[in-house]
Amino acid sequence: MSLIFERIHTDGIAELSYLIGDDSEGVAAVFDPRPDVDCYLRLAREKQVSITHIFETHIHVDFVSGSRELCARAKSAKIYLSHEGGARYGFEHEGIADGDVFELGSALITARHTPGHSPEHMAYLLSEKDRPGAPWGVLTGDSLFVNSAGRSDLLGSSRAKELAEQLFHTLHDFYLTLDDGVLIYPAHGQGSPCGEDIGDRLSSTIGYERRFNAFLQFNNATSFTKHTLTDAAPIPTYYPLMGTLNTRGPTVLGNLPPVPGLPPKFFQEAIENSDNVLIDTRMMLAFGGGHIKGALSIGGLPVLSIWAGWLQDSDQPILLVLDSDDMLETIVRYFVRTGYTKFAGYLVGGMAAWNNAGLPLESVGQMTVHKIKRSGEKLQVLDVRAPDEWKDGHIPNAQHIFLGELREQLGKLDKDKPTAVYCDSGYRATIATSILQQQGFSRVCNIPGSWQAWKNAGYPVEKEIEKERK
């Protein structure tokens, strides 16, 4: 036997999926696949195995499950899903329960019910067929992360306490009973909203986490629950939609959705159709230098998946402005991962073609941190970072509105006052300036470098803890 073990890291949503198999038998399983499944099929061909099993650790709420898509394209595969915790699904699959065992050649996979992040959550112990009682690894899904543990509040406040208590017992009654040398392979890395302060390593061991993971240091469910549910980060607005979609069963696409190319005049006509939404995927300085009126800026990095989920209705057809036409497939993949499959078209030739056609432009000013410092209170400075980032330190006298809640809290701002927006480096601030422009803020600018530039310039920092003490 030659064990096949491959980890697939999907940046942006910080998702980790796995292909595990035995090349002597020519079989493999995929765990927690993303919706653009070509990578698994390509990897299976490279390793000369057939994907026969598709497992999920739980009902995902942060991205579209790729299980149905992969099953349709792999042909010989079956989907295996947890029926623990009362979970049921709207599509064909095989139900599994705690203790079920699967053989992939000499590789042995044992399902273990690990509730807390969600009621149905499963972990999968990995062992050799000849040593079934000595697992060498465990796929932990969203229950145990490197340096962290899964959130228990994603199904709403009414279930948060119950799930937090279940998670405590999962961590203590299952994970901490495993040998120190057992390797852990979680379903998310650093940057995922599904856990707090997830470490930057993609794997760990039970022994290391036993010593250093803060979530494993509590000896009772009460203190653990208080820790996990206090000051939790905002829940992305699209999570409930993803949970419903993945329970019902995502539509099998067969490929990436088509996006027609539209020359400038036709693109302009499509913008005038109120059913469509215009999204500019160029980065901060390009968007600021000139963009189409009404465009929402979401720069074309992998994290686009998350911010599209936060800010955009997936039922609205999308019109795309790209940095270059050859970025189309990459950008569409980012959208598909959080449920966006309707596209009205993209601007052929990008903004160069728009400019050459003599069509109108808007711009966003750029203001350095040095000018911000000199402006004082003449300027309305807006911080759109996450609450924990704000608490750790911010520009003195700035206002804080988390980007994901900006549209709902615009009433806190003075629309007539010049406004400068910052985040950590400028990406989220650019999204925010585009929202402010959409809402009639005419004197708005971005701060290139944002918080990083402010700190590196050595300017004063204000912290919420220090303000509370005063």
UniProtKB/TrEMBL annotation:
Chain segments annotated as transmembrane: none
GO function term, MF aspect, one: sulfur dioxygenase activity
Top-level taxon: Bacteria
Keyword NADP on entry: no
UniProt cross-references to Pfam families, sorted A to Z: Lactamase_B (PF00753), Rhodanese (PF00581)
Keywords, in A-Z order: Metal-binding
Every Rhodanese domain range: 272-363, 375-463
InterPro entries, sorted: Metallo-B-lactamas (IPR001279), Mito_Persulfide_Diox (IPR051682), POD-like_MBL-fold (IPR044528), Rhodanese-like_dom (IPR001763), Rhodanese-like_dom_sf (IPR036873), RibonucZ/Hydroxyglut_hydro (IPR036866)
GO biological process: glutathione metabolic process; hydrogen sulfide metabolic process
Entry annotated with the keyword Ribosomal protein: no
Name of the protein described by the UniProt record: Beta-lactamase domain protein
Organism: Desulfomicrobium baculatum (strain DSM 4028 / VKM B-1378 / X)
The organism's taxonomic lineage, starting at the top: Bacteria, Pseudomonadati, Thermodesulfobacteriota, Desulfovibrionia, Desulfovibrionales
